[in-house]
Amino acid sequence: MGLFQLGCFAWIHLVLALTVTGLNRTELFDYGVQHGDQILEPGPDQNQELALDQTLFFYKSSFDTVYISTNGFIAMDSIPDEAEYLGKMPASFGMVAALMGNLDTSDGVGKVYYRQDSSPATLLRATKHISQAFPADDEVEPTHVIIVTWEDVWPQGLLGRGDGVATSEGNTFQLVVASMESASYAILLYPRDGLHYLSTPIGGRIKPLEVGFNQGEVSGWLWSSAGEYYRVSSDDVRSIRQLTRKTNSGQRGVWVYEIGTSPFFTSIHSGETDELDFEDFEESTPAPTTTVPVPVIPEREREWEGEYEEGPDYPPVHPPYETVTEDWEEETPDPPTQAPQVPVDPGQFPVYPRPTYPEPSYSEPPRYPEPDQPEPRRPSQPQRPQVVVVDTDDLDVDVFSYNYETCANNWQKCSSFADCRDYSSGYCCHCRPGYYGDGRDCVAEGKPQRMNGKVTGRVFVGGSSSPLEFASNELHSYVVANDGRAYVAISTIPASLGPSLQPLASLGGAIGWAFALEQPGYQNGFSLIGGRFTRQAEVTFHPGGERLSITQVFKGIDEHDHLTISTTLEGRIPEVPRAATVQIEPYKEIYQYSRNIITSSSRRDYTVTLGGLGVQTLSYSWRQTITFEGCHHDQGANQPPSSQQLSVDQVFVMYDSANQLIRYAMSNKIGSIHSEGVENPCFTGRHGCDTNAMCRPGEGTHFTCECATGFTGDGRTCYDVDECRQTPQICGRHAVCSNQPGTFRCECMDGFQFSSDGRTCVEVERPVNHCVRGTHDCDLAERAQCSYTGGSAYLCSCLPGYQGDGRTCRDIDECQPGRCHGDAICYNTQGSFTCQCRPGFYGDGFHCTPDSHREKTACEQHRERALAASANTGGYFFFRPRPAVGQFVPSCDPYGAYEPMQCHGSTGQCWCVDREGQEISGTRTGPDSKPSCIDQGVAPTPVGPTPRPDVSPLAPGTSLLFAQSGKIEHLPLNGETMLKDDAKTLLHVPDKVVIALAYDCVDKVVYWSDITQPAISSVPLKGGQPTTLIKTDLGSPEGIAIDHLSRLMFWTDSMMDRIEVSKLDGSHRRVLFDDNLVNPRPIVADPLNGRLYWSDWNRDGPKVEMSNMDGTDRSALVSEDLGLPNGLTFDPQTRQLCWADAGTRKVECVDPYTRQRRKIVEGIQYPFAVVHYGSNLYYTDWRREAVVAVDRRAEKEVDEYLPLRRSRTYGITTTHPQCLPGVNYCSGSNGGCSHLCLPRPGGLTCRCPDANDGTCVERDRQ
């Protein structure tokens, strides 16, 4: 194995990307298939051409096509093999490199999403980023964006190694290119938890990722030359790490650049807003470099360095910090400073023979997780405002997070028991008298301190080849601060591990040091650095050479005044027999202090007593490093001694097998390394003061006891002060006081939150959706649309056919020369126009032909035949045919269609006809009356500019949609009441019979089936052109169900006798069932639980069935006392599956889990479909030609809606403004499936479509 393979993946600095306050993943632009994204084919070096809906400007050129690449960029030209450009920039083609490297998305690990978008909400977000980056530009109005998202992508070569490394998150970042009429901008977004590696392997080397804009080759008069390469990152990984921490747009992690303009272009223009809304992590933003067209000197390539030390044969342990030595300098005007070094003497510890253990067997090598970042501290009372601390680099911690700011804007970052003070270079926090700490965390002197946390990791015991896991075991500690006693307990420790942990009393060593009893002139750890630090310890046991690594992250005081700790253990410890006891001798440990780092090392002896089998004395070597952030602005602050000695005695260890607890106790003092004897009881801990009291030393051996702040008494006995009872109004209005030992806590009531002063509870400003409430100032709904954009913001835009700013919209007169045919007349209408051929011509208005040229319609031919028959009788009147007596001659309208009402000229009878001229039964009248006939000749679909399918915008809130032959009607609901007067036609679909209806609450899209062609189609609820999704291999699709979580569509086909599934766009079709089905009609989905329900109205054996969405566990749910179960609906909130039966004339419900069945109503007429909302069921009825409401609780009919145009009513569904909350196994990233992700209870199944292209992989997942 070569050096490159050996290094492998210390290669990419997996643990380098520290989390700091910055961009959240949720703040990325929306992405995923549910937002209309396409997914790039998986694998390395993949690319896809994307034809643009609007021109993109890049440097001096414009482009109508881009190419999306797996390798973290988009290109303006076709992309060559990656070997031609990776590590060889500048490339010969134009590109925007968001985070370019040797990347891979094979095996379902990582995805690349892309789409074009021009929705108002997306354009508004892009406008906000650009305007914030370029505040002087006042005409930023993008009209088109390209959104490319690389989600959890990994370096090529890491996938498929079999060691589980790639099971964690890869890099996630996003590129948004926003274009206007004459300019384009690139918005680069790097979420704070999105970068998990900073380099990738390229050509046998490890090279940093790259960010920049490459112009590509530029053609000259005689030859082409390399264009400009505007590089944002540099050749060291630090510049990549800063992408999440810095900005040029005012928001950390967001970078904005003007990348092209027309007609003139000078250079790439970087955003101009360095100021952040929060404290800066670093002082300066790296200036991007520009590579001009001159020969490029290859970057210095560094071989992977380092060798493995000889040592015991124990499982490899990866350090929690970067082990690669980088030779970059600090980005600061000051000379670079070297981080404090920890002196290590190779001869300090004796070397013992190395034992041989069996080869360990585990799924992946033990690794140190990156230490958790300190979390913001929540206020524990009104005077305790929030503290926010930002981590710096691992050991190079020379920048205090307060940075160059003042108390005026940052006082709330101090503890409520601290004062904020300004200095020439910044501010610092200082605990008030009676408290100690670093100013960010302060605790009362003399008060006991509690600590809580979790222990994770795994440990090998003795020669075992299998590790014992720590699964977030509880750690609890209690310290009596006035005498230095510390108690530590870890729970749920099995007997196979507990006895062997007894020597590790040092697990509580940092706790003892932090709250050690202070000797005169010396300070314990909490007094010096507070409660936010990281401790890294390495333990080597002798004589066996076993090694254990301990990482503890102290996260500060939480809202309960407890210090929180996370502990990770990795490595091997010697085995201690179960019956043995362990005694640890008192020891001393010297702590060496320097700027932001504290080190110590020692050797400790312990005795193992094996009952009657003897005593064994062993030892271990101990080295530890404590890193923290200090405030160095106070140059006059007293500095601690460079060395202090921690004395630990009265060490007690025990494994409690009955309760599975490991317990440690010890007494700790911090003082001089010269072990000066101090006899005062305050410094020996033998004073007898209450545990909640301070010991105040006097002359000689005299002392006094004083109760800690928040307690009262004589010092020997102290009682908690109940501040809430003594001062009921201490928390102020709209707040609740909660007493705690030594302090109290204020919490705002529901609906209130702390204001910026951290004390006053103010009412929460709840976002208002003005579009729904109707409090917006957009123009009338007939002319404008209100689009909710989050918070209380909205956007007004004019509807098609109108122009204006959305608040005032004017009709556009589309009747301009050339709109209609030359032989047609244009009629302007509100929001649209129509074209009509002049008399003597026929056509649709866009194409008109003289009447003499066109083929006669059926009505005209019928009329001619009737007149010709009359002509044969020889009767003429002024040379025109005259009908014979008793001869019927049809009437045709100007377009040649049958008039809706036909009359017999001789008898005087009249009747109604359909579009084919066939008499409608029951409409014939006598000579003295005429029937009211409906125009069956619905106008054909116009060609060219058409009116919107919806008659008028829909009202907000939940509504019913139901089908009536060739149209879909919209019936708003107010609560559960049908607003009959507000009913409107949503969509006209001439010559079709709409049967099934379904609704996607995510994209607000209506799906329907038509049995005349047949087809399955969709249309946006807000209006637009219908889209045919499926039109082949269909017989009679009569039921549709939508899984909005998995983005799936299911349907039944009563002619093909099968049930199918596809993606919402109709792709990836797969037959789920094609057996034991006769007349399947309604189908409904339960996305949260991955279940399907459908009914079959087979007259010989009707039934209601269910299965998982992947087709497994099919069973009959109801098969008795059924007739024609036409309608079906499932209510996930009540877990009721209800159906309407046209045979039994009942509506019934059943719980699919308990099988309990109940009747709702009976005696109904002929139901077709049913849907639920609230406590009501709504069903359509063929005979009543109505929508009927039934109260499930009262078990009776409560309302009825009769449409103005009476005809059979078919499918029915509800449109909800918001989806019900919840997820299933396929909600995110398609469940990791390549094609169809089908959820089921407790897991998912990846399935291939019936038309498999060979790239699909089927598998089951739990």
Automatic annotation (TrEMBL):
Residues 1-17 form the signal peptide. The keyword Endoplasmic reticulum does not apply. Residues 279-388, 921-950 are annotated as: Disordered. Keywords: Basement membrane, Calcium, Cell adhesion, Disulfide bond, EGF-like domain, Extracellular matrix, Glycoprotein, Repeat, Secreted, Signal. Disulfide bonds join C903-C910. Residues 98-262 form the NIDO domain. PROSITE patterns: ASX_HYDROXYL (PS00010), EGF_2 (PS01186), EGF_3 (PS50026), EGF_CA (PS01187), LDLRB (PS51120), NIDO (PS51220), NIDOGEN_G2 (PS50993), THYROGLOBULIN_1_1 (PS00484). This is Nidogen. It comes from Coilia grayii (Gray's grenadier anchovy).
